[in-house]
Amino acid sequence: MKILYYKWNSFGTEDIEEAFRTLGHELVIIPWSQDYVDRDKELIKKAEDMITEKKPDVTFTSNYFPPIAEACHETGTEYVCWVYDSPHVLLYSCTTIYETNHIYTFDREQYEEFNRNGIKTVHYMPLAANPVRLRKIIEDKGQQELFSNSRFYNKADVAFIGAMYDEDHTFFRRLKNISGYTRGYLEGVIAAQKQVWGYNFVRDLMRKDIMDDMARDLPMQPKPDSVASREYLFSEYCINREITARERMEYLTAIGSTFAAESRPGLDLYTGNTDLELDGIYDHGPIDHYATAPFVYDKAKININISLRSIHTGIPLRCFEILGSGGFLLSNYQADFADCYVDGEDYVSFGSKEDMLDKIEYYLSHEAERLEIALNGFRKTVKAHTYIHRCAKILERYI
Questions:
Q1: Count of CA atoms in the C-beta half-sphere (13 A) of 320
Q2: Backbone torsions φ then ψ of 330, nearest 5 degrees
Q3: Strands (E), the chain
Q4: Among 249, 302, 328, 344, which one is least packed by beta carbons within 10 Å?
Q5: Could you please report the per-residue DSSP string of 28-66?
Q6: How far is residue 399's CA from residue 397's CA, in Å, rounded to a whole number?
């Protein structure tokens, strides 16, 4: 099969390309940018001309892009995409309904939302890992030596790789002029949602009067060709991101302070914010997710996942990468794990900060059990959750 692959600097892009080639498909790679989001007529025409020239069986992208959907619709070409970002407002473009679209999202709840609204072009497909690549990196002796002498080398037993979302310019922190009532209401929503993993109710609580007040500082409005609601924009891009920022800081600080109080190694943190100075936390700064993160996942005794709250049920890519590297995963509860793994057998979940701390303590003192769970998770990933498995499933309708 001939695939026109509009490729940009997304997570997993090299693994997807390798999977397509391993499955025997012919690839035509076209550079793309996630900045190309508007339905610009010139951009669409260029894509149409490329499709007409190359004559692919399908066109593929990571994430959904309306200009590509438009070009495929105009040329009668099948457009296949796999969404890994959340939130991803482009998915709410009115172009989503084109019959040439075959859109796969990693969050089952999002798929079900579209399905309930009669949109049949959106499907569910969990993310994946490339265990062969990950283990090849980890087992390279030369790279091991470089890692052991780098600033990224693990100093503690527990590790977290990810954004903190605590920058001053985040949407929620731009709310300077809202009323005391609105601020109190939003703080109440945040406090309530922080108590619950497994069901996100923030969007349901975005009242019109609250959003009108927020809009004075955040004039969020759906684009004319989008069916995204204001509730979606305010809840996912503003409130859920702020909840994530607070949770990550609170949960990770709790790990660091607990270990610091006992004079034990605390937490290795790998994030873009390099200004953090917290007890028991070793801030290593940003890390290369592709080439260096696998070493951290492999060496850490426990890898923490604290999901971005806009991912309602899906398994974040970080989790597949940890399991595909052979690492032990301790994650907040996400419903879609049940589609792929068994809690307590392949990974371990927690339901609160206290539960997380208890399980860290337990699994650090039960090494054999911890190593068995990590091995189970790795084996199951190799058996059923690689990019080759997913790409074969995505394209099976065309073969």
A1: 28
A2: -120, 110
A3: 2-7, 26-31, 58-62, 78-83, 101-105, 122-124, 158-161, 267-270, 281-283, 302-305, 329-332, 348-350
A4: 344
A5: EEEE--TT--S--HHHHHHHHHHHHHH--SEEEEES--H
A6: 6
Which amino acid does the sequence have at 22? Answer: T
Model pLDDT for residues 147-164, shown as the tens digit of each residue: 999 999 999 999 999 999
Q: Name the pTM for this structure.
A: 0.96
- DSSP string for 3-19: EEEEE-S-TTHHHHHHH
Q: Which of 243, 305, 249, 301 is nearest to 278 (CA)?
A: 249
- Bridge pairing between strands 267-270 and 26-31: unpaired
Asked whether 71 and 41 are in contact (CB, 8 A), the reply is no
Q: Tell how many helices (H) and how many strands (E) occur in the chain.
A: 15, 12
Q: What is the distance between the alpha carbons of residues 269 and 376, in angstroms, rounded to a whole number?
A: 25
Which residue is associated with the tokens 């809840």?
A: 235
Q: Token digits for 352?
A: 């609160």
Paired with 14 in beta bridges are none
Q: Encode burial over 23-52: b for 16+ CB neighbours within 10 A, e otherwise.
A: eebebeebebeeebbebeeebbeebbebbe
Alpha-carbon torsion 295, 296, 301, 303, what sign? negative
* C-alpha–C-alpha distance, residues 391 and 23, integer Å: 8
